[in-house]
Specification:
Number of strands: 8
Radius of gyration: 18 Å
Order of helices and strands: HHEHEEHEEHHEHEHE
Strand content: 15-25%
Distance between the termini: 11 Å
Helix content: 25-40%
Shape: globular
Number of helices: 8
C-alpha cells in the first residue's frame, strides 16, 4: 500500500477512534457533543491532513429538521465515483439505541426522516447512508479481530435502506448491516461490505461488481459523473409516494476525496 493510501486510511482510523473516546467523555460530563459538532470537526481534520486530494464546499444551511443536515460525499476513483448522501446519528447516552431512528419526522415533511433521506438521495442519484457515532462499550459485532489493535470503531456506516429493512433501533442489531467507516478508504478488511473498495473504483477489482448492480445509479463513470434522467426521476417520485411538486432538501455541504492516484494494486 502506498504512503498516500496508508495515510488516508490512518486518518479515518484515528478520527473514528477520537469520536468514540470523546463521545464517552461527553457522556460523563455536561458538555454537548452533538452530530453536527462531531461531523464538522471530523471533516475539518480530513481536509487539513489531505487538502491535496480533499475538497469541501459548504452551502446555505438547509431545513435541518427535515434532512438532518446531510452531507454529500463523492469518493472518486479512476473508473468510478461513489456518490453518497450521508446523515449522522449519535448513539444515545445509554449506549443501547439510536433514538427515534424510524419515527422522527418534521412537521413539513411528507414522511419520517429516514424515508426522506432515502427519497432525497435517490432523487439526486446518491446512495443514502447513515453514519452512526458510537462509543467502544456499545460494540458487539465488530470485535477486536475486525479493527487494528488499539483503535476504537467510533463511526459505523451503512446503507439507509438496509438499516430500514433491519427494523431495529438497537445498536447491536444495526451493527449487523454497517461497517467501520475506514472501510470506505482502506484496503477491504472483510468481504461483507455494502460499499465498493477503492480498488473497484479505480478499475482494478471487479469481484464486487455483481453485488453492486442494484446500486449502479450511485456508482457512476468518473468521466461523466452523470445523474439520473428525467424519466427515471418521474418513476422514483411515484415509487416514493412524494408530492408532484416536492423538491429534495439541499445538503449542507459536499466533500470530494480524489483517490485516483492511490496505490490499490494489492487486493484483499
Amino acid at each position: 500500500m502506498s504512503a498516500a493510501n496508508l495515510n488516508l486510511c490512518q486518518t479515518f482510523l484515528e478520527l473514528a477512534d477520537a469520536i468514540s473516546r470523546n463521545l464517552r467523555l461527553a457522556y460523563g460530563s455536561h458538555i454537548s457533543y452533538g452530530e453536527e459538532t462531531i461531523t464538522e470537526g471530523t471533516l475539518l481534520q480530513i481536509w487539513s491532513r489531505h487538502s491535496s486530494i480533499v475538497n469541501i464546499q459548504t452551502f446555505s444551511k438547509p431545513r435541518e429538521a427535515m434532512n438532518g443536515a446531510d452531507w454529500e460525499w463523492h469518493i472518486i476513483g479512476r473508473k468510478y465515483t461513489l456518490k453518497m448522501r450521508v446523515q449522522a446519528k449519535r448513539l444515545a447516552k445509554n449506549g443501547l439505541q439510536i433514538k427515534r431512528l424510524y419515527s422522527q419526522q418534521a412537521k413539513t415533511a411528507p414522511h419520517p426522516q429516514i424515508d426522506m433521506l432515502i427519497a432525497d438521495a435517490t432523487l439526486q442519484g446518491l446512495l443514502p447512508v447513515y453514519c452512526f457515532y458510537s462509543t467502544e462499550p456499545a460494540r458487539s459485532t465488530w470485535t477486536a479481530a475486525s479493527m487494528p489493535p488499539g483503535y476504537q470503531a467510533g463511526c459505523l456506516v451503512g446503507v439507509a435502506s438496509d438499516i430500514k429493512a433491519q427494523g431495529s433501533k438497537y445498536f447491536y442489531s444495526l451493527e449487523q448491516v454497517t461497517v467501520p467507516w475506514h472501510f470506505l478508504v482502506c484496503e477491504r478488511l472483510a468481504q461483507k461490505s455494502p460499499f465498493p473498495s477503492i480498488a473497484f473504483l479505480n478499475g482494478q477489482d471487479d469481484m464486487f461488481e455483481t453485488a453492486l448492480k442494484a446500486r449502479e445509479p450511485f456508482i457512476v463513470s468518473t468521466e461523466s459523473r452523470e445523474y439520473p434522467d428525467g424519466d427515471r426521476d418521474y418513476h422514483i417520485r411515484a415509487s416514493l409516494d412524494l408530492p408532484e411538486d416536492y423538491q429534495p432538501v439541499p445538503v449542507i455541504g459536499r466533500i470530494s476525496i480524489d483517490c485516483r492516484h492511490l496505490d490499490t494494486d494489492r487486493r484483499a
